[in-house]
């Protein structure tokens, strides 16, 4: 075989090999292969990341006996994280996006002031960063701190970047990130951008995802694709903070305002998120009821995104938190039996799948 033929054959073999590897990497389990649920959340007292497993989507067990699996001071500039969101991407990887913020950093000795910057000028919290994490197996994670204020010149004076979430844009074939942001001490609004392939940087300058019809802050958006529709739940500070929904045919445009409140709570709640029950035409809406003490989650179930059945709070009805309490800002994904067993084994969790 001459040199040219060898190079051609070698190139073909290299291409085929990489294609096979790519196909294996990109293989994502179908819903029929899912056997459990993974919830991520955080707690105010530690500002760390927690995980809980469930076989039925009703009873959740913390995998590390209600201790953080990752401490916020190991991954965040402010030494604390909030608002975790988990997403299984089409490339087969798991992604986490979190707020880089410690609201008790002064008390914890991480800084000498209540906030990083003047609260009168930049408002409550006034963080500027997000933590981005990536894993092939839910156990081994890499992380990057994304300073949103440094991503584009026009963002240099933002007042906060909170509660990032992720969704795959089928048309662009990219991961879309969306989060709450404000400029200076103006009203909080929800913006979206697109991530680079390494999940480390914003590729596009953030744009408004939608505009609320009143001049009030609105935060904590959550997008779920059901059929050909995108259901967006969010929290406007329109009187008592609560959960509203908008629907669109497009992932980041055309959301139509609906003035209905979709949570049944009489007090303030935030951080809505949706997960689908495996093998059923049912979705569960979770919301963080931050105006009760101790903190708790509320749950409502729907089959049509119009009518919602109130399932109550953790440990006050059918929903159970087995070995943890006072969780904050959840997100839930479906996982396979193998993934659940691997997580449980790694953390010596006794839940059986």
Helix residue percentage? 10-25%
Query: How large is the count of helical segments?
Result: 5
Q: Using only CA atoms, what is the Rg?
A: 21 Å
Measured distance between first and last alpha carbons: 54 Å
What string gives the helices and strands in order?
A: HEEEEEHHEEHEEEEEEEEEEEEEH
Mean pLDDT across all amino acids: 93
Shape, per Cα inertia axes:
globular
Category by helix and strand content: mainly beta
The main pleated sheet reads as: 5 strands, mixed
Count of individual beta strands: 20
Uncertain spans = 3-24
Portion in beta strands = 35-45%
Strand order of the largest sheet: 19-3-2-1-20
Task: Offer a concise description of the structure.
This protein is mostly beta strands and 353 residues long. The chain has helices at residues 3-26, 105-108, 119-122, 148-151, 337-346; strands spanning 34-42, 49-54, 59-62, 81-88, 94-100, 129-135, 142-147, 158-169, 174-183, 189-194, 207-208, 218-226, 229-236, 244-248, 270-276, 283-289, 296-302, 308-313, 320-321, 328-336.
